[in-house]
Write a structure and sequence with these properties.
By secondary structure, the protein is an alpha/beta fold. The chain has 2 domains: 151 residues, Ribosomal protein L4/L1 (Ribosomal Protein L4, Chain: A), CATH 3.40.1370; 50 residues, no CATH class. Helix content is 34%, strand content 14%. It is built from 7 helices and 6 strands. Strands 2-1-3-6-4-5 form a 6-stranded mixed sheet. Helix 5 links the parallel strand 4 and strand 5. The longest helix is centred in the middle third of the chain and has 17 residues. It starts with a strand and ends with a helix. It comes from Gellertiella hungarica. This is Large ribosomal subunit protein uL4. Keywords: Ribonucleoprotein, Ribosomal protein, RNA-binding, rRNA-binding. Belongs to the universal ribosomal protein uL4 family. Part of the 50S ribosomal subunit.
Length: 206
């Protein structure tokens, strides 16, 4: 399918032919949900920790004699029911990551790109280049394109001036084509691809 290419100023700059195998799929929510869950789980640090009863620096001797007090039977003050005791079944340091086949991950990216195009949230620009690192210039350019929450995907190398100017604008994210991912595509309102990014993606999924 053909899509009109825009400049950063909002003017037409010809058309680009998009591959149906990448941008023309029927989006499947189950695949996208699996991919987002995999990404977020892999991102989780897993450094949460609570001390169990064996790790508490407290005496382990019996609190009082077993019989004759009229009170409940207890042993160590490190038990979870006491103030200052250990946590029962508390969090431990671990990895939250789980496996997801590589083919499913590649398919999820194609479904995310197709979903963005189907929802009219995909814009292709001729190039993501700024003459100078001035945020004000990019704010005006984004306004002409109607952008207020977008993910910009450049080529293998992102223009330094464009990246510096865009990073000061709220809800605008810039990544090279190697960093494109399903979670960022879905959480941003618009996806803006440079022509170099489109070519790289089609080469990647060839």
């Amino acid at each position: 399918m053909d899509l009109t290419v825009k400049t950063l100023e909002g003017k037409d700059a010809g058309t680009v032919s998009l591959s149906d195998a990448i941008f023309g799929l029927e989006p499947r929510e189950d695949i996208l949900a699996r991919m987002v869950r995999w990404q977020l789980a892999k991102k989780q640090q897993g450094t949460h920790k609570a001390k169990g009863r064996s790790e508490i620096a407290r005496t382990g001797s019996k609190m009082y004699k077993q019989k004759g007090t009229g009170r409940a039977r207890h042993h160590s003050a490190r038990a979870p029911q006491f103030r200052g005791g250990g946590k029962a079944h508390g969090p431990v340091v671990r990895s939250h990551a789980h496996d997801l086949p590589k083919k499913v991950r590649a398919l999820a990216l194609r479904h995310a790109l197709s979903a963005k195009l189907r929802a009219e949230g995909l814009i292709v620009v001729d190039q993501l280049v700024a003459a100078e690192a001035k945020t004000k210039n990019l704010v005006n350019a984004f306004a002409s394109l109607g952008l207020n929450n977008a993910l910009f995907i450049g080529g293998a190398e992102v223009d330094a001036n464009f990246k510096l100017a865009a990073q000061n604008i709220p809800n605008m994210h810039v990544l090279p084509v190697q960093g494109i991912n399903v979670y960022d595509i879905l959480r941003c309102g618009k996806l803006v691809l440079s022509k170099a990014a489109v070519e790289a993606l089609e080469e990647r999924f060839k």
